[in-house]
Amino acid sequence: VFCSQNYPLYIRSVPTENELKFHYTVHTSLDVVDEKISAMGKALVDQRELYLGLLYPTEDYKVYGYVTNSKVKFVMVVDSSNTALRDNEIRSMFRKLHNSYTDIMCNPFYNPGDRIHSRVFDTMVNSMMMQVC
């Protein structure tokens, strides 16, 4: 999860031994997200959901993107060998992630722009990751 200035609010990876590689992949994908947003232009403003779909595939991974109306970016990296995940499942996972993020934003003790430290959010992300693995 990244704010509109591309500052990371929340990053989680499984397995953790390649965490630095995933961080690099996610940060490089932010350029693709910005390109897609600018290419779509005003068409995105009219939509309620800003699912960007597959940003780019690599040999080992597929990178997907989603942007909220407030320009918060969600990026998901999935193993390419996982053929069970279809576009609808990825879209559903982003909606679930967006709903949980909205719940965090509604918390009066959360300052927008701060890193996300929430057990409920962690639990939701971990359960989504276990379903994918």
Offer a few descriptive terms:
globular, 133 residues, three-stranded antiparallel β-sheet, alpha+beta, endoplasmic reticulum, Beta-Lactamase, 4 helices
Distance between the termini: 20 Å
Structural class: alpha+beta
Briefly note the CATH topology name.
Answer: Beta-Lactamase
Strand order of the largest sheet: 1-2-3
Domains, number = 1
Q: Mean pLDDT, nearest integer?
A: 86
Query: Which percent range describes the beta-strand content?
Result: 15-25%
Give the biggest beta sheet.
Answer: 3 strands, antiparallel
Low-confidence runs (pLDDT<50, min 5 residues)?
none
Overall number of strands: 3
Give me the Rg, rounded: 14 Å
What is the class in the CATH system? Alpha Beta
Elements, N to C (H/E): HHEEEHH
What's the oligomerization state? single chain
> What is the CATH architecture annotation?
2-Layer Sandwich
Tally the helices. 4
Secondary structure: helix percent: 40-55%
Instruction: Give the overall shape, derived from the CA principal axes.
Output: globular
Can you walk through the features of this model?
The protein has 133 residues and is of the alpha+beta class. It has one domain (18-131): Beta-Lactamase (2-Layer Sandwich). Helix content is 45%, strand content 16%. It has helices spanning 19-40, 42-46, 87-105, 119-132; strands spanning 51-57, 61-67, 73-79. The protein has a three-stranded antiparallel beta sheet with strand order 1-2-3. A hairpin with a 3-residue loop joins strand 1 (51-57) and strand 2. Helix 3 packs antiparallel against helix 4 (119-132). The radius of gyration is 14 Å and the shape is globular. It starts with 18 loop residues before the first helix and ends with a helix. The model has no long low-confidence stretch (mean pLDDT 86). Belongs to the TRAPP small subunits family. Sedlin subfamily. One of its GO terms (biological process) is endoplasmic reticulum to Golgi vesicle-mediated transport. One of its GO terms (cellular component) is perinuclear region of cytoplasm. It is found in: Cytoplasm, Perinuclear region; Endoplasmic reticulum; Golgi apparatus.
